[in-house]
Design goal:
There is one protein chain. By secondary structure, the protein is of the alpha/beta class. It contains nine helices and eight strands. It has one domain: Aldolase class I (TIM Barrel). An eight-stranded parallel beta sheet has the order 7-6-5-4-3-2-1-8. The protein is globular. It starts with 8 loop residues before the first strand and ends in a 25-residue tail after the last helix. Bound molecules: iron/sulfur cluster.
């Protein structure tokens, strides 16, 4: 269902500063102490790929990668070393400056993964906490859309603040011809509790998420969903793609990530879902195990057991 094969890409965190303060930021508490990958490690990654051709694409990421002063130099070097694609993950505000965007494209950055927090300025700006950010991100997307040779992917983090707007996000971006894939990443707080009341109920998210998936597909977009129970998605189950490209980052990140406590589900032992992360600790603390809502997926070759669900 996804357009971009995660295994063909490698991600490297090169910048941990940011000029937004999104309420759902996964690394807000650790941003100041996480260290970007060194230039030596970046060079080693390029050398490795030049020798092995292990990956087709390089993803430059971190907090806000466009704040990195030598971003275009790194992109040029990556392309020269043999990467066929260089992607940046960004909030897109910097792309509202046409000259800046043109320089990025000239350096070889051909894929743009842009975060869109909401469908309108009021919602998006309240989530990013920076007035005017929606207008700048949208302008950046439109400049990219008018630029030959680039592809756009958007991501919307699904929280209590955004889930009702998912179909409207799709509608608001419907005019972008270079938008190839829309992603919906359901929020997890990187800790054991939902201190900011951002974790939304899967039951409540479901109708909005499935509507957004259907609308995005109708526009010809690929769709990728992360961190949502596979059994609830029905025929949209194949949109669930929890895999990520190999990530080269500060090891301290993984200690924080482990606090989420994924893979909890009362049906785990008898569910044939391959992609599902189950529930996480913060979700269970807030909503319980929801064993009355979840339905284990039966193995394809066997007869479904009573109380089991196949993806329908
Ligand atoms: S039953 Fe549990 S493990 Fe299986 S798809 Fe549903 S949430 Fe995931």
């Amino acid at each position: 269902m996804a357009l971009y094969e995660n295994g063909a890409y490698v991600s490297v965190t090169m910048e941990f500063r940011c000029n937004l303060r999104c309420v759902h930021c996964m690394i807000e508490k650790t941003m100041d102490r996480l260290m970007p990958e060194s230039r030596d490690r970046f060079d080693a990654l390029l050398d490795l790929n030049a020798r092995t051709r292990k990956w087709r694409g390089l993803i430059l990421t971190g907090s806000e990668i466009t704040l990195l002063r030598d971003l275009t130099i790194l992109a040029r070097r990556a392309r020269a070393s043999g990467f066929r694609h260089v992607r940046i993950q960004s909030h897109g505000m910097g792309l509202s400056q046409p000259d800046f965007t043109a320089a990025l494209v000239r350096s070889g950055i051909d894929e743009y993964f842009i975060s869109v927090a909401g469908a309108d300025a009021a919602t998006h700006d309240a989530i990013t906490t920076v007035p005017g950010s929606f207008a700048r991100t949208l302008r950046g997307l439109e400049i990219l859309d008018g630029t030959a040779g680039v592809s756009i992917i958007t991501n919307t983090v699904v929280t209590t603040r955004s889930f009702r707007q998912l179909p409207e996000v799709v509608a608001r971006l419907a005019h972008l011809r270079r938008l190839t894939q829309m992603e919906f990443w359901v929020y997890f707080p990187m800790r054991e509790s939902d201190d900011k009341n951002l974790v939304a109920s899967n039951r409540e998210i479901l109708p909005y998420l499935r509507r957004a998936i259907a609308d995005a597909r109708a526009l010809g977009r690929a769709v990728e969903v992360k961190n949502f129970p596979e059994c609830l998605l029905g025929s949209d189950g194949p949109t669930l793609a929890n895999g990520q490209p190999e990530l080269h980052t500060d090891p301290a990140f993984w200690a924080e990530f482990a606090r989420n406590g994924f893979h909890q589900c009362v049906y785990r032992d008898r569910c044939a879902a391959r992609e599902c992360l189950g529930l996480n600790t913060a979700y269970i603390q807030k909503y319980g195990f929801e064993d009355d809502v979840l339905r284990p997926i039966a193995p394809r070759s066997s007869t479904p057991q009573a109380g089991s669900a196949t993806v329908a």
